[in-house]
Design brief:
The protein has helices at 22-30, 52-58, 67-74, 91-101, 113-117, 141-148, 168-177, 188-197, 203-207, 216-224, 240-251, and strands at residues 12-14, 35-37, 41-45, 61-64, 86-88, 105-106, 129-134, 152-157, 159-163, 182-184, 210-213, 232-234. The chain has 256 residues and is α/β, with parallel strands linked by helices.
Length: 256
């Protein structure tokens, strides 16, 4: 059993984007685990370009990178019109996609871009047209990997991430008052935003926190921000269940 590192009376800071933390927060409530929820970004629907439907319906494979990619697409397009095999980076995304498409969705065991690129179904893709449904910016790893294998890659942007208008000093004061010991972050974008928002004199406090992150890539970025690697705990994935498991392990508690 992992040695408990967190005071069970102190809340865990959850920073998942607005509207994306409901299930995790409900689980924390059920287990009576104290938390403070402070989203730093939200997502906004991006109207599809005229050629998006054609690309989706003529594709050989369609990849969805997040729940937002699916939910914002289905608000303006019937996903049942897609006939190509469907792939999702994570199980939560796959579940949402299966509901709106009515079809089976392939998801890698390693729920990261690296895991998706390792799927046998995405090895022999030379000459195939692959559509990636995603938001603005984000990693280019999937595109680069598939291009190297000879695929034709097309992006369909269904949403964009937007920082919320927050006062870093007020956030810092609140987090101190709440005796925050642990911060849960699920993307490099959120991690960087925390350090951009809080005053520089508070960065040493941030560096002393325990952090739950979702990938070795995030850990590397955190170390570059001055966080010692021993303060970083990697969850198995970015889905709610994995984050809950990570929180429970740091608290030295378990759940059914």
């Amino acid at each position: 059993m992992t040695t408990p590192l967190l005071d069970p009376l102190n809340p865990v800071l959850i920073t998942r984007p607005a509207g994306k933390a409901d299930q995790l927060l409900a689980s924390l409530d059920e287990l009576a685990i104290p938390y403070l929820y402070q989203p730093l970004i939200t997502t906004q629907l991006v109207p599809l370009k005229a050629k998006a439907a054609t690309m989706l319906e003529q594709a050989d494979q369609v990849i969805f990178v997040s729940v937002s990619a699916v939910s914002c697409l289905q608000q303006q397009y019937d996903c049942k019109n897609i006939t190509a095999p469907l792939v999702a980076v994570g199980t939560t995304t796959a579940t949402v996609l299966e509901k709106c498409s009515g079809r089976e969705v392939l998801v890698p065991a390693d729920q990261r871009s690296e895991g998706l690129l390792a799927l046998p179904q995405l090895q022999d893709v030379a000459g195939k047209h692959i559509v990636i449904v995603r938001g603005n910016a984000g990693r280019e790893l999937i595109k680069k990997g598939l291009l190297q294998r000879g695929a034709h890659i097309h992006y369909v942007q269904s949403y964009r991430r937007v920082p919320l208008p927050l006062d870093g000093q007020i956030l810092s004061d609140q987090w101190h008052q709440q005796h925050i010991q642990c911060i849960v972050v699920t993307s490099n974008e959120i991690l960087q935003l925390i350090f951009e928002l809080l005053p520089k004199e508070q960065h040493s406090w941030l560096q002393q926190q325990l952090w739950i992150m979702v990938s070795p890539r995030m850990k590397e970025a955190a170390i570059e921000l001055g966080i010692d690697g021993s303060r970083i705990y990697l969850s198995a994935s970015a889905n709610d269940q994995a984050l809950l498991e990570a929180i429970c392990q740091l608290r030295g508690t378990c759940h059914d």
